[in-house]
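Inverse folding, one chain.
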């Protein structure tokens, strides 16, 4: 084999890398309204476990931010990659929620099924941990999950706002495909988290604008 030749596996990796770089180049910078800061998202990988942090500030009433984060039954209407979100049970500040959707990975989607036990500390903190059990007769697709939202009241442009910090740690029940997972796993998780976090912020801003419109004096 000449020095300029490469194996089939190397050609596949190079093609995947080229397509991926072109794809990410088309994404462009996310749109950010004047009412929110550009989200900062970081993802680190330790073996099959991903550690996620996302933070941003948004100029909305703390109650609106809280109501959006805990609006489990309607999340499929404003968060991407969620097909169904439902409350299984409520007991005081504890809520059990099921999410069904997909995790986009390069050119295909991985099904996501997870049941979360959520503890709510109103207007300040939401903590979620995975809970055992099948969903629709199918096993869950995350081996483990723990996550939280922290809300802090801040002042943004001389009006009340909220600083949001989201953190999570999760492990998939089945490892990502080696070639795609090793090359693009962290990048794809970062992209998915960013899309969902930005969608959450947009929904908060939309609800704030809708309330301001209703309350505007005639």
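Residues assigned per position:
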């Amino acid at each position: 084999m000449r020095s300029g030749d490469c194996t089939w596996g190397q050609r596949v990796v190079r093609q995947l890398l080229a397509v991926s770089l072109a794809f990410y180049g088309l994404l462009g910078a996310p749109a950010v309204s004047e009412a929110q800061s550009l989200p900062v998202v970081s993802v680190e990988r330790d073996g099959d476990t991903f550690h996620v942090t996302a933070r941003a500030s948004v100029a909305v009433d703390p109650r609106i931010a809280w109501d959006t984060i805990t609006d489990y039954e309607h999340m499929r209407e404003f968060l991407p990659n969620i097909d169904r979100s439902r409350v299984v049970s409520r007991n005081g500040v504890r809520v059990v929620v099921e999410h069904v959707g997909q995790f986009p990975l390069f050119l295909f989607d991985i099904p996501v099924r997870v049941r979360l036990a959520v503890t709510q500390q109103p207007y300040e903190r939401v903590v979620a941990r995975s809970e055992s059990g099948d969903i629709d007769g199918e096993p869950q697709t995350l081996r483990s999950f723990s996550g939280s939202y922290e809300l802090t009241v801040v002042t943004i442009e001389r009006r009340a706002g909220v600083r949001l910090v989201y953190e999570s740690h999760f492990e998939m029940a089945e490892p990502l495909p080696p070639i795609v997972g090793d090359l693009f796993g962290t990048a794809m998780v970062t992209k998915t988290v960013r899309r969902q976090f930005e969608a959450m912020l947009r929904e908060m801003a939309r609800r704030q604008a809708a309330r301001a419109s209703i309350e505007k004096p005639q």
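The longest helix spans residues 178-215. Residues 33-215 form a domain with the Alpha-D-Glucose-1,6-Bisphosphate; Chain A, domain 4 fold (CATH 3.30.530.20).
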